[in-house]
Amino acid sequence: MDLFCGGGELERKKKGRSCRMKRIGIVAKRNKPEAIGVTKDLTEWLRQRKIDVYADEETGKAVAAQFPETRVKAIEPRVLAEHVEMVIVLGGDGTLL
């Protein structure tokens, strides 16, 4: 599965451009261990697809503490959106953000 933005693939090929995402951010609810586990799995899945993964500092610290072998780029939450094309939020109360 590739992560592409909207619009038809044929139209993008005609114009010679691709909308493939290269940088994705993750923010997880840190007091939910299952959210940190999903963050680890998602990070590995994205990295296998040559996608850079960023996380807010607290999520990054939680992943590093539980899964030291999983590398995620941890950055300040206030600048996360400036570094990524999409943010995935895990472990909330089910509200769509």
> How far do the termini sit from each other?
23 Å
Order of helices and strands: HEHEHEHE
Q: If you compute it from the alpha carbons, what radius of gyration comes out, rounded to the nearest whole angstrom?
A: 15 Å
Could you report the average pLDDT, rounded to the nearest whole number?
A: 82
Percent of residues in beta strands: 15-25%
Number of helical stretches of at least 4 residues:
4
Describe the 3D structure.
41% of the residues lie in helices and 20% in strands. The protein has four helices and four strands, in the order H-E-H-E-H-E-H-E. Strands 3-2-1-4 form a four-stranded parallel sheet.
Task: Present the secondary structure layout.
Layout: H1 9-15, E1 23-28, H2 33-48, E2 52-56, H3 57-66, E3 73-75, H4 77-83, E4 86-90
Parallel strand pairs: 1-2, 1-4, 2-3
Helix pairs in contact: 2-3
Short description:
41% of the residues lie in helices and 20% in strands.
Features:
single chain, 41% helix, alpha/beta, four-stranded parallel beta sheet, 97 residues
